[in-house]
Write a structure and sequence with these properties.
heterodimer; A: about 425 residues; alpha+beta; Tick-borne Encephalitis virus Glycoprotein, domain 1; five-stranded antiparallel sheet; about 30% strand; B: about 260 residues; mainly alpha; 8 helices; about 0% strand
Chain lengths: ~425, ~260
């Protein structure tokens, strides 16, 4: 690569207000937000749903464009599109996010609540600072956006992309609907769901569960320390998956799995394979202590809703245990009945299905019944602003690749 | 062709990469360095061939098992490493990428029982590997930029400050930040597919966002005040602390115990 002469990035126009003023203003805006929150007795702020958020969006954008078009040379507008203003906005925004990161966002603490600290993302200070950032960001985009030039491509991708994403995510949060649907196999069509705060919700469609299927891994074996209450780890070998005939070294023991029953019940003479709810995974293991040569053999099992787990005492507070088998894959076969008729859908984790403006996800099942679960828990999500968020994210992705390729625009010696 | 052929392909790729790394790092001659780059790319090609044939023979994308995941790491790490090296010439970067890739190849070789060991359903996604890879690179670059910042502070207080140090830090931050942005966005896109929403202010997400904001502040400050040196050096060092909290610290925060990102048993 040729060495281009060192070139400083173009320095934006200097404004009368610098960092001190910007930070002061940003901080004051945040304080006003807190005062408002206290005034509202900690009730917080939530964006109104459609069509009010859309109206607000249009009014806000038009106002920004109009103010910029008419007053772009006024000191106030110049300052709002300056770097000190953005840095102060980002910093105060980061401060609020920091609070979000440290303070558990739930609970009924009185003084946390009145300041909005246990619901930061729905608080007045957060809203006001976000508006401050969005105004500054909007002006900055217009300043560099008009007239349109190729050299501003990366800048615009990043800044307009962020503006769009934040706006759509913020506005969209009020139109976002996420509800849980509990279905039983062989139940009837149901349009009942529950919101995240446990309130009933009626879906504009109904679903019926035909079949819930689950595929389990085999159980894993491990050594537990009864004193410390944890699984013993040594050089990474901790919980291998077992099968009948599994023979290996585990921690300080040589183990041989003489028998493995993925579904069994306990009887007086050991374990017997059976396939019905409440069964456990069981294994008959022979162990030999590599340190002192002691051998111990016996049955171990995982726990279930009907049986306690069974351990093998290896001496010196160490026990051989068997874990509850984990799910490899679980899926639901459903019939969906909506405005356009009926269709059969197969839902799996990471494979959601789009229907009638909603997206259905496979979330969970009756974990107590485990592999015998005949109930399935789905999530239905409606997110009408998602395409706008995706558009913003796409611009940001393009901007990121652009940044990677161009770097800082300053060449240094290549060999590091 | 299946996993039984893996040791052959992995060993061949590893040999190519080691030779390539030696040539790049130890030779001063342009010609040998070029040969090094070609050899490294050839090594990558061997692994890509293995991956492709495996995919065809499995009849499904190899995205479900732990062994398969590690194979993708061994392929993506060099791809991004080579592109970045060709673009920016940082030898330490391609060495880092290939050494990590070799590590994954080796782990896979030592644990053949994981070839079939499938992941929990939520991790069986094409977003999993890209999300992790870009973060691996971003953290490496941003860590490097912090080392440079510390070097800069040392120069400032004890020796004579060289402005090139700050320029190097800037470049590393820019590239590292672009990877950081990709990581954050990939995570959001994956979350939408797996959990139903792209952003839930999960502690890891929140701290990842904070890390992003911290470096954003640094970059903007550098734009407006390019002549200042003390403030940006300290800002960069502080930003790295935020990154470390995001990476490790959240496991210890009380607000984070129920997060999907807390990697405990």
């Amino acid at each position: 690569m040729k060495n281009k002469p060192v070139k400083e990035a173009a320095i934006p126009a200097k404004t009368a207000w610098g960092y001190a003023e910007s930070f002061l203003i940003a901080f004051e805006i945040m304080v006003v937000g807190f005062i408002l929150e206290i005034f509202m007795q900690g009730r917080g702020f939530a964006f109104p749903p459609m069509p009010y958020n859309l109206i607000f969006l249009l009014v806000f954008t038009l106002a920004l464009v109009a103010v910029y078009a008419l007053y772009r040379n006024q000191p106030l507008v110049k300052w709002l599109s300056s770097v000190p203003c953005s840095v102060s906005g980002i910093t105060v925004y980061a401060l609020l996010v920091l609070l979000l990161g440290f303070i558990p966002q739930e609970g009924d603490s009185r003084w946390l609540g009145i300041l909005g600290l246990n619901h930061v993302k729905n608080s007045w200070p957060f809203l006001l600072v976000q508006v401050y950032v969005m105004v500054s960001l909007g002006f900055v985009v217009m300043r560099r956006g008009f007239p349109l030039r190729w050299k501003n491509f990366g800048f615009l991708m990043n800044h307009f992309g962020l503006w769009l994403t934040l706006l759509a995510a913020g506005m969209g949060s009020s139109d976002l609907k996420r509800v849980h649907i509990d279905l039983s196999e062989n139940g009837d069509f149901s349009n009942a769901a529950t919101t995240q705060d446990d309130r009933p919700f009626t879906l504009p469609f109904s679903v019926k569960l035909l079949d819930f299927s689950i595929d389990m891994y085999d159980a894993k074996i491990g050594v537990a320390d009864a004193v410390k209450g944890e699984i013993v780890e040594k050089h990474g070998e901790t919980l291998p998956v077992i099968h009948k005939g599994f023979e290996n070294k585990l921690i300080d023991w040589n183990i041989l799995v003489r028998e493995y029953l993925p579904n069994a019940i306990k009887t007086d003479s050991g374990y017997v394979a059976m396939d019905k709810p409440g069964t456990v995974a069981a294994a008959y293991v022979s162990t030999r202590n590599l340190v002192n040569g002691d051998t111990v053999s016996g049955w171990i099992s995982s726990g279930s809703m009907m049986f306690e787990p069974v351990y093998l005492d290896l001496g010196r507070s160490k026990f051989m245990i068997l874990t509850e088998p984990e799910p490899r894959k679980f899926a639901s076969q459903l019939v969906f009945r909506g405005a356009k008729g009926e269709e059969t859908i197969q839902l799996e984790v990471n494979k959601p299905h789009r229907v009638q403006g909603w997206k259905l996800y496979q979330i969970s099942y009756d974990t107590q019944m485990g592999k015998y679960s005949n109930t399935s828990v789905l999530e239905a999500v409606r997110d009408p602003w998602l395409p706008v968020v995706y558009a913003g994210i796409l611009l940001l992705l393009i901007g990121a690749v652009y940044m990677f390729w161009l770097g800082r625009g300053v060449r240094t010696e290549k060999d590091k | 062709m299946n996993w039984t052929n893996y040791p052959f392909f992995a060993t061949l790729a590893a040999i190519f990469w080691i030779i390539g790394l030696i040539l790049i790092n130890l030779s001063g001659k342009q010609r040998l360095q070029l040969i090094g780059k070609v050899i490294i790319t050839a090594g990558l090609g061997i692994l890509v061939a293995f991956l492709t044939i495996l995919w065809v023979n499995l009849g499904r994308p190899p995205l479900r098992t732990l062994g398969e995941t590690r194979l993708w790491y061994s392929v993506f790490l060099p791809i991004v490493g080579i592109i970045t090296y060709l673009r920016w010439g940082y030898k330490w970067f391609i060495s880092y990428a290939l050494l990590l890739a070799l590590l994954f190849l080796f782990i896979n070789y030592l644990h053949p029982e994981t070839y079939e060991k499938t992941l929990m359903p939520a991790l069986q996604s094409p977003w999993f590997v890209p999300h992790v890879i870009v973060y691996i690179f971003s953290y490496a670059l941003l860590a490097a930029s912090s080392l440079v910042a510390v070097k800069g502070l040392y120069e400032l207080y004890f020796r004579k400050f060289d402005v090139q140090t700050l320029h190097l830090a800037d470049n590393l931050v820019y590239i590292g930040f672009s990877f950081l942005t990709l990581g954050l966005l990939f995570g959001a896109l994956w979350a939408k597919e797996a959990w139903g929403h792209y952003w839930t202010w999960d502690p890891k997400e929140t701290w990842a966002f904070l890390t992003w904001l911290a470096y954003l502040i640094y970059m903007h400050f550098r734009t407006f005040q390019p002549k200042k040196t003390t403030a940006p050096l300290w800002t960069l060092s502080l930003a790295f602390v935020v990154l470390l909290i995001c990476w490790f610290g959240i496991n210890y925060l009380p607000s984070a115990q129920n997060s999907v990102h807390v990697y405990s048993r």
